[in-house]
Amino acid sequence: MPGKRGASAAVAVDALRQRIIDGTYAPGDRMPSATLISEEFGIDRGTAARVLAQLREAGYIITKPSSGSYVRSFERIVRSFPHRLTVWREGEAIQDADTGKRARMVEVTVGEVPASESIASSLGVAPGDPVLRRSRRFAVEQRPVQLADSFYLIDMVRATPIVYTDTGPGGVYARLAEIGRAPVRFTERLHARMPYPAERTALELPGGTPVIAIVRTAFDAEDRCVEVTEMIIDASAYELEYHAEV
Question: Rounded to an integer, what distance in angstroms lies between the CA atom of residue 209 and that of residue 243?
C-alpha cells in the first residue's frame, strides 16, 4: 500500500479504524506494528504508537504483551424472547438479560413528538397527537449495537419517572406496574433490511451490513396497548432466540 507521507495521527487512526469496521482487519487479526504504521503514514514511531493506543482506548483493538495488537473480537448478543421482558420484576433492566455484566453504555433522550399513523393506531390516538418518545442508542463494549424509540400515552405516564432519562430499578415496565399498567403480553414483528444512512452512521456499520427492524407492542391485563417500541439492531452483533409453548 502506498505511503501517505506527512499524514497526521488522526488520519492514521481514521484509516485503521475504517479497515476494522469494513472487515479488512477481521476480529482476531494482528494489527500492523507501530513501525509499519509509521512507514505507511509518514509519521514517527512514537506517533504511530499513540495511534495504536487511541484505537485500544476506543475499544477496537487489544494489546497482548510481547505479542502485538489484535482486532478485538465481539461475542454476539443473545436476545432471548420473551424471557428478557420479565426481568423487570426483579428490578433489572431488560438489557441486563441480553448483555449481563458486559460493559454497556446508553444515550437517552425523552420528549413529546407527534404520533405517526402506525404509532397512533397502536396507542389509540389520532395521527399527529402528542405522545411521549424515549429514544436510546445502546453500545456494548464501546460498539454501537441498537437504536430504540419507545412511545407512550402522555396522560398515562406524565406523573411517572418514565418522563425522565433514568426511570429507576426495573425500568419503564416497573414504573408501569406501579400505576396498574404492568405489561403482561407482547408481540414482536421483525424484518431484515439494509440500514438507512442515518442508521448506518449511528450504528457505525461497515458497508453491506444489514439491520433487523423490530416493532414490539406491549399490552396490560386489560389488553390496552401501553407501549410501542421500534428497534433497529445490528444484525452482525445479535443472535435472536425465541421461546414458545404449544
Answer: 27
CATH class for domain 9-71? mainly alpha
Percent of the chain clearing pLDDT 90 (strictly above): 74
Question: 49-58, pLDDT tens digit by residue?
Answer: 999 999 988 7
Which residue type is seen at 182?
A
One of 2.60.40.2470, 3.40.50.11310, 3.40.1410.10, 3.90.550.10 is the CATH number of 77-242, namely 3.40.1410.10
Mean pLDDT value across the chain: 92
Query: Smallest Cα–Cα separation from 140: which of 78, 207, 208, 86?
Result: 78
pLDDT at 5 over 60: no
- Name 30's Cβ contacts closer than 8 Å, sequence gap at least 6: 68, 69, 70
